[in-house]
Amino acid sequence: MIQHKLAMISTDPKLVGQLCDLIGTMPNIDFPTMGGTVFWENLAESNGWKLQKNKFTNHSRLLDPSNTRKAWGSEQAMLDALKRLEPTMSASYESMKVFCPHCGSNVPKGKYCKECGSNME
To answer: Which has the higher per-residue pLDDT, 85 or 55?
Structure first.
């Protein structure tokens, strides 16, 4: 049973992000990271704190100034946690969002719209 579920995730890694969207905040053990320079997109950064989103699974995480993972889960849950920890971060996060010219959604800056998939460049 669990092998089948792991096989599903391996064929569609975005299922991890969808699960996080349903649950919100996932159980966390503070874990040192390398700062997310390869597989992670910075959504916001302030005073060393980083809100990042995984490029493959779409789940998000919150890193402290020493690059230790303090929380992980959905983007909204991580933003809410970050607002409590670092109030200036929400302004940084909002400034990194743009309106998609195709569907009009307010989405993070990037090559493609998170909502409709249209090319944003």
So the answer is: 55
